[in-house]
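Quick start: what a row looks like.
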Amino acid sequence: MTGFGAAEVTRNGILVKVELRSVNHRFFDPSIRISRDWSGLESTVKDLLKEGVARGRVTASVDVAAESGGERLVIDETLADEYRTVLRGLAERHGLDPTLRAFELLQVPDLVRRETRVLEEADVTAALGDAVREALAQLESMRAREGQALAKDLSARLERIEATLDRVEAEARGAAEAQRDRLRERVQALVPDGVTPDPERLATEIALLAEKADVTEELVRFRAHDRAFASFLESGDPVGKRLDFLLQEMNREANTIGSKSSSAAIAHLVVELKEEIERLREQVQNIE
Protein backbone atom coordinates (compact mmCIF):
# COMPACT_ATOMS: atom_id res chain seq x y z
CA MET A 1 0.00 0.00 0.00
CA THR A 2 1.07 3.56 -0.56
CA GLY A 3 2.03 5.96 2.19
CA PHE A 4 4.29 8.82 3.27
CA GLY A 5 5.91 9.77 6.54
CA ALA A 6 8.51 12.34 7.61
CA ALA A 7 10.22 13.27 10.86
CA GLU A 8 12.98 15.51 12.25
CA VAL A 9 14.63 14.61 15.55
CA THR A 10 17.32 16.54 17.45
CA ARG A 11 19.31 14.70 20.08
CA ASN A 12 22.50 15.90 21.80
CA GLY A 13 23.02 18.51 19.11
CA ILE A 14 22.51 16.00 16.26
CA LEU A 15 19.77 16.61 13.69
CA VAL A 16 18.32 13.60 11.83
CA LYS A 17 15.77 14.04 9.04
CA VAL A 18 13.89 11.04 7.64
CA GLU A 19 11.40 10.77 4.79
CA LEU A 20 9.62 7.49 3.97
CA ARG A 21 7.60 6.63 0.88
CA SER A 22 5.94 3.28 0.18
CA VAL A 23 4.28 1.87 -2.92
CA ASN A 24 2.68 -1.49 -3.68
CA HIS A 25 4.91 -4.55 -3.94
CA ARG A 26 4.47 -8.25 -3.27
CA PHE A 27 7.46 -8.39 -0.91
CA PHE A 28 9.37 -6.13 1.47
CA ASP A 29 11.73 -4.17 -0.79
CA PRO A 30 13.59 -1.31 0.95
CA SER A 31 15.66 1.34 -0.80
CA ILE A 32 17.72 3.46 1.62
CA ARG A 33 19.49 6.70 0.76
CA ILE A 34 21.92 7.88 3.43
CA SER A 35 25.10 9.97 3.30
CA ARG A 36 28.34 8.10 2.68
CA ASP A 37 29.67 9.08 6.13
CA TRP A 38 26.86 7.08 7.74
CA SER A 39 26.39 4.28 5.20
CA GLY A 40 27.23 1.79 7.95
CA LEU A 41 23.84 2.55 9.53
CA GLU A 42 21.92 1.37 6.46
CA SER A 43 21.27 -2.05 7.98
CA THR A 44 19.98 -0.34 11.14
CA VAL A 45 17.46 1.64 9.07
CA LYS A 46 16.41 -1.54 7.25
CA ASP A 47 15.76 -3.37 10.54
CA LEU A 48 13.72 -0.42 11.82
CA LEU A 49 11.61 -0.40 8.66
CA LYS A 50 10.88 -4.11 9.08
CA GLU A 51 9.24 -3.31 12.41
CA GLY A 52 6.42 -1.52 10.62
CA VAL A 53 6.33 -2.77 7.02
CA ALA A 54 5.90 -6.40 5.97
CA ARG A 55 5.17 -5.88 2.25
CA GLY A 56 5.82 -2.94 -0.03
CA ARG A 57 8.62 -1.06 -1.78
CA VAL A 58 9.82 1.50 0.79
CA THR A 59 12.16 4.37 -0.06
CA ALA A 60 13.90 5.95 2.92
CA SER A 61 15.86 9.22 2.69
CA VAL A 62 18.05 9.90 5.73
CA ASP A 63 20.05 13.07 6.46
CA VAL A 64 22.38 13.34 9.47
CA ALA A 65 24.06 16.60 10.51
CA ALA A 66 25.15 18.60 13.52
CA GLU A 67 22.37 20.93 14.64
CA SER A 68 24.48 24.10 14.17
CA GLY A 69 26.09 23.03 10.93
CA GLY A 70 28.92 21.00 12.46
CA GLU A 71 31.64 23.70 12.41
CA ARG A 72 32.88 26.22 14.99
CA LEU A 73 35.62 28.85 15.25
CA VAL A 74 38.43 28.04 17.68
CA ILE A 75 41.04 30.61 18.90
CA ASP A 76 44.51 29.41 19.78
CA GLU A 77 44.77 31.16 23.14
CA THR A 78 48.43 30.25 23.69
CA LEU A 79 49.41 31.68 20.33
CA ALA A 80 47.38 34.83 21.03
CA ASP A 81 49.25 35.39 24.33
CA GLU A 82 52.58 34.97 22.58
CA TYR A 83 51.68 37.47 19.85
CA ARG A 84 50.46 39.97 22.44
CA THR A 85 53.69 39.71 24.44
CA VAL A 86 55.84 40.15 21.35
CA LEU A 87 53.83 43.12 20.04
CA ARG A 88 53.93 44.92 23.41
CA GLY A 89 57.67 44.39 23.62
CA LEU A 90 58.11 45.92 20.16
CA ALA A 91 55.93 48.89 21.13
CA GLU A 92 58.00 49.57 24.27
CA ARG A 93 61.36 49.30 22.49
CA HIS A 94 60.41 51.45 19.53
CA GLY A 95 58.07 53.93 21.16
CA LEU A 96 54.97 52.66 19.35
CA ASP A 97 51.35 52.83 20.44
CA PRO A 98 50.88 49.84 22.78
CA THR A 99 47.11 49.72 22.24
CA LEU A 100 46.13 46.41 20.62
CA ARG A 101 42.62 45.97 19.30
CA ALA A 102 40.96 42.53 19.20
CA PHE A 103 40.15 42.64 15.48
CA GLU A 104 43.83 43.43 14.74
CA LEU A 105 44.88 40.38 16.70
CA LEU A 106 42.37 38.21 14.82
CA GLN A 107 44.19 39.04 11.57
CA VAL A 108 47.24 37.14 12.76
CA PRO A 109 47.72 33.94 10.63
CA ASP A 110 46.71 30.61 12.22
CA LEU A 111 45.28 32.32 15.27
CA VAL A 112 41.69 31.36 14.37
CA ARG A 113 40.78 28.06 12.77
CA ARG A 114 37.61 26.18 11.84
CA GLU A 115 36.96 22.95 13.71
CA THR A 116 34.47 20.30 12.59
CA ARG A 117 32.51 18.65 15.35
CA VAL A 118 32.81 14.86 15.57
CA LEU A 119 29.40 13.19 15.89
CA GLU A 120 29.23 10.19 18.17
CA GLU A 121 27.78 7.11 16.48
CA ALA A 122 25.78 6.13 19.56
CA ASP A 123 24.05 9.54 19.58
CA VAL A 124 23.40 9.36 15.84
CA THR A 125 21.96 5.84 16.13
CA ALA A 126 19.63 6.89 18.95
CA ALA A 127 18.37 9.96 17.06
CA LEU A 128 18.01 7.88 13.90
CA GLY A 129 15.84 5.31 15.68
CA ASP A 130 13.51 8.01 17.03
CA ALA A 131 13.21 9.68 13.61
CA VAL A 132 12.52 6.46 11.67
CA ARG A 133 9.89 5.30 14.17
CA GLU A 134 8.13 8.67 14.10
CA ALA A 135 8.10 8.66 10.28
CA LEU A 136 6.88 5.04 10.30
CA ALA A 137 3.94 6.00 12.53
CA GLN A 138 2.81 8.55 9.93
CA LEU A 139 3.38 6.07 7.11
CA GLU A 140 1.39 3.35 8.85
CA SER A 141 -1.48 5.75 9.56
CA MET A 142 -1.80 6.58 5.86
CA ARG A 143 -1.50 2.92 4.87
CA ALA A 144 -4.16 1.97 7.44
CA ARG A 145 -6.66 4.40 5.90
CA GLU A 146 -5.98 2.93 2.48
CA GLY A 147 -6.29 -0.57 3.93
CA GLN A 148 -9.76 0.16 5.32
CA ALA A 149 -10.97 1.27 1.89
CA LEU A 150 -9.35 -1.77 0.31
CA ALA A 151 -11.00 -4.12 2.81
CA LYS A 152 -14.44 -2.73 1.89
CA ASP A 153 -13.76 -3.37 -1.79
CA LEU A 154 -12.58 -6.93 -1.11
CA SER A 155 -15.61 -7.66 1.07
CA ALA A 156 -17.95 -6.45 -1.70
CA ARG A 157 -16.22 -8.75 -4.20
CA LEU A 158 -16.54 -11.69 -1.79
CA GLU A 159 -20.27 -11.05 -1.60
CA ARG A 160 -20.47 -11.14 -5.39
CA ILE A 161 -18.60 -14.44 -5.41
CA GLU A 162 -21.00 -15.89 -2.82
CA ALA A 163 -23.97 -14.79 -4.92
CA THR A 164 -22.43 -16.44 -7.99
CA LEU A 165 -21.84 -19.66 -6.03
CA ASP A 166 -25.54 -19.68 -5.11
CA ARG A 167 -26.39 -19.47 -8.81
CA VAL A 168 -23.92 -22.28 -9.59
CA GLU A 169 -25.53 -24.45 -6.91
CA ALA A 170 -29.02 -23.83 -8.31
CA GLU A 171 -27.89 -24.56 -11.86
CA ALA A 172 -26.07 -27.69 -10.70
CA ARG A 173 -29.24 -29.14 -9.16
CA GLY A 174 -31.15 -28.69 -12.38
CA ALA A 175 -28.22 -29.87 -14.48
CA ALA A 176 -27.99 -33.16 -12.56
CA GLU A 177 -31.61 -34.03 -13.33
CA ALA A 178 -31.20 -32.99 -16.96
CA GLN A 179 -28.08 -35.12 -17.31
CA ARG A 180 -29.88 -38.20 -15.94
CA ASP A 181 -32.69 -37.71 -18.45
CA ARG A 182 -30.20 -37.33 -21.32
CA LEU A 183 -28.39 -40.51 -20.29
CA ARG A 184 -31.63 -42.49 -20.21
CA GLU A 185 -32.60 -41.19 -23.63
CA ARG A 186 -29.20 -42.11 -25.10
CA VAL A 187 -29.34 -45.61 -23.64
CA GLN A 188 -32.81 -46.13 -25.02
CA ALA A 189 -31.65 -44.93 -28.44
CA LEU A 190 -28.66 -47.28 -28.46
CA VAL A 191 -30.53 -50.41 -27.28
CA PRO A 192 -31.87 -52.54 -30.18
CA ASP A 193 -35.60 -52.94 -30.55
CA GLY A 194 -37.01 -55.69 -28.41
CA VAL A 195 -34.18 -55.51 -25.85
CA THR A 196 -34.93 -54.10 -22.43
CA PRO A 197 -31.90 -52.91 -20.37
CA ASP A 198 -31.55 -53.97 -16.75
CA PRO A 199 -33.25 -51.15 -14.81
CA GLU A 200 -31.02 -51.59 -11.74
CA ARG A 201 -27.82 -51.64 -13.77
CA LEU A 202 -28.96 -48.63 -15.73
CA ALA A 203 -29.83 -46.74 -12.56
CA THR A 204 -26.41 -47.60 -11.06
CA GLU A 205 -24.47 -46.40 -14.12
CA ILE A 206 -26.48 -43.21 -14.30
CA ALA A 207 -25.89 -42.59 -10.60
CA LEU A 208 -22.11 -43.09 -11.01
CA LEU A 209 -21.95 -40.66 -13.92
CA ALA A 210 -24.06 -38.14 -12.02
CA GLU A 211 -21.77 -38.47 -8.99
CA LYS A 212 -18.71 -37.69 -11.12
CA ALA A 213 -20.42 -34.51 -12.30
CA ASP A 214 -21.55 -33.47 -8.80
CA VAL A 215 -19.88 -30.21 -7.64
CA THR A 216 -21.25 -30.13 -4.09
CA GLU A 217 -17.86 -30.77 -2.47
CA GLU A 218 -16.21 -28.07 -4.54
CA LEU A 219 -18.90 -25.57 -3.56
CA VAL A 220 -18.50 -26.43 0.13
CA ARG A 221 -14.72 -25.96 -0.01
CA PHE A 222 -15.08 -22.76 -2.04
CA ARG A 223 -17.40 -21.27 0.59
CA ALA A 224 -15.02 -22.33 3.37
CA HIS A 225 -12.23 -20.42 1.62
CA ASP A 226 -14.54 -17.40 1.35
CA ARG A 227 -15.24 -17.46 5.08
CA ALA A 228 -11.54 -17.77 5.89
CA PHE A 229 -10.77 -14.88 3.54
CA ALA A 230 -13.36 -12.67 5.28
CA SER A 231 -12.04 -13.56 8.75
CA PHE A 232 -8.47 -12.73 7.75
CA LEU A 233 -9.62 -9.33 6.50
CA GLU A 234 -10.96 -8.54 9.97
CA SER A 235 -7.73 -9.48 11.75
CA GLY A 236 -5.06 -6.90 12.49
CA ASP A 237 -2.17 -9.15 11.49
CA PRO A 238 -0.28 -9.18 8.17
CA VAL A 239 -2.42 -11.51 6.03
CA GLY A 240 -1.39 -10.79 2.44
CA LYS A 241 0.35 -14.10 1.84
CA ARG A 242 -2.47 -16.11 3.41
CA LEU A 243 -5.03 -14.32 1.25
CA ASP A 244 -2.87 -15.07 -1.77
CA PHE A 245 -2.94 -18.78 -0.89
CA LEU A 246 -6.72 -18.80 -0.42
CA LEU A 247 -7.19 -17.21 -3.84
CA GLN A 248 -5.13 -20.00 -5.39
CA GLU A 249 -7.42 -22.53 -3.72
CA MET A 250 -10.54 -20.69 -4.88
CA ASN A 251 -9.24 -20.68 -8.42
CA ARG A 252 -8.56 -24.43 -8.21
CA GLU A 253 -12.13 -25.10 -7.05
CA ALA A 254 -13.53 -22.94 -9.85
CA ASN A 255 -11.50 -24.88 -12.42
CA THR A 256 -12.75 -28.19 -11.01
CA ILE A 257 -16.38 -27.04 -11.11
CA GLY A 258 -15.95 -26.01 -14.73
CA SER A 259 -14.33 -29.30 -15.74
CA LYS A 260 -16.92 -31.50 -13.97
CA SER A 261 -20.01 -29.76 -15.30
CA SER A 262 -21.28 -30.00 -18.87
CA SER A 263 -23.74 -27.15 -18.36
CA ALA A 264 -23.14 -24.05 -20.50
CA ALA A 265 -24.78 -21.88 -17.83
CA ILE A 266 -22.38 -23.17 -15.17
CA ALA A 267 -19.44 -22.66 -17.52
CA HIS A 268 -20.42 -18.99 -17.88
CA LEU A 269 -20.74 -18.64 -14.10
CA VAL A 270 -17.31 -20.19 -13.64
CA VAL A 271 -15.89 -17.49 -15.93
CA GLU A 272 -17.50 -14.86 -13.69
CA LEU A 273 -16.00 -16.49 -10.61
CA LYS A 274 -12.51 -16.52 -12.12
CA GLU A 275 -12.80 -12.88 -13.16
CA GLU A 276 -13.67 -11.88 -9.59
CA ILE A 277 -10.85 -14.03 -8.20
CA GLU A 278 -8.39 -12.29 -10.52
CA ARG A 279 -9.62 -8.88 -9.38
CA LEU A 280 -9.19 -9.99 -5.79
CA ARG A 281 -5.68 -11.22 -6.57
CA GLU A 282 -4.71 -7.83 -8.03
CA GLN A 283 -5.89 -6.08 -4.89
CA VAL A 284 -4.35 -8.58 -2.48
CA GLN A 285 -0.90 -7.78 -3.89
CA ASN A 286 -1.28 -4.45 -2.08
CA ILE A 287 -1.98 -5.99 1.34
CA GLU A 288 0.67 -6.83 3.92
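That is the whole record. The radius of gyration is 39 Å. The mean pLDDT is 81.
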